[in-house]
Fold:
Amino acid sequence: MSDVLPIPQESYLELSARQRIARICDKGTFTEICGPEARRKSPHLATFGMPSAFDDGLIVGEARLDGRNIMVAAQEGAFMGGAVGEVHGAKLTGLLLRAADRAPDAVVILADSGGVRLHEANAGLVAVGEIQRAIFTARDAGVPVIAVIGSANGCYGGMSIAARSCDWVVMSGEGRLSVSGPEVIESAQGAGEFDARDRALVWRTMGGRHRYLMGDADRLVADDPGAFRSEIVSLLGQSRAITLETLRARNTELKQRIDTFGAARDGTEIWQAMGHSDPWRLPELEPDPFQAAVDGKRRKRA
Amino acid sequence: MTTLLEFEFDNVKRGNTRRAAQIVGVVGSGQLEVLIEPAELDGKCEIVVETSAQGFDEIWRSVLDDFAAQYPVADLRISINDGGATPAVVNLRLQQAIAEVLDV
Structure:
């Protein structure tokens, strides 16, 4: 028996934003727009004695994916938790508007963000509003917008709203998606409401598996750049309708969801109510057995 | 406020193959990013450091002196955004940046 451990597969979670772009896109095809040499740094951070980044924590550009034209944006979670500042937001908004104009086969947003960069206050909040409007502008022009969530910071605050405004959400089990983060809920409502140190609880209520079961995530993938890439490729060129009717259907579904599950204290209670007889087992399953277990027993987006 | 430090090294031209601008590292706590760009600087190497840590001018001078002695590269502009990286981390990132931009 060999005592050499197998080399683990590469983890999407652990990659930097630039590495993620390199792994997702066709090799050598990424052309950055407004790159670090343009030095579009935050005009606000120096006021607080904080260092700024040459790309303001967001990398945007054009590339090919499976031979098709895409635009791609990646948030760098190691810089200020991927938080959205004025320049960061303007770059993402600009990319989406460019997409509405040039009609690539998708805009792919590799999210890794705690939300608005509070140091930039109103400028960050305005940026999130502009991003959301630009997502709808791109979608209205027939360009699919795909949010990809599987990074260490997850996708929270304003970026969670942006992600759910997209056509598609692709997540790994390791990914997290929620408006308020665990610590925020605990601070506001107390540990009795939500114990932010209970990591398993965090994933049972915000993690990729739960989001997939609830239909908030359309695709669930393993924490592997190749798996993410394959699922994104399968969504290229595919738009969802965005009309008054689809919005109304969505609102009805959300209302029904809170009526059905509003009293639940944990993800497991929701899964049980959805017909999963052994809900505590679900978080432990590997991706493939998980898919088999939940097939036909998950909600889908209206 | 952050501190802006500027250094200039008058180095020997070595005629290495230069690639386009490269960036390595990310600005985080104890981390830094290094942007390295070929530039017409009359044989000099220019290094600009923006750092949140105050009072380390002499340490930066020592680290960058060592770097310039180790890699006598000409016509490069190196721009650093620093979140309080230690000298060892700075040195490693500079070596990585040099490897990205030059055939050394």
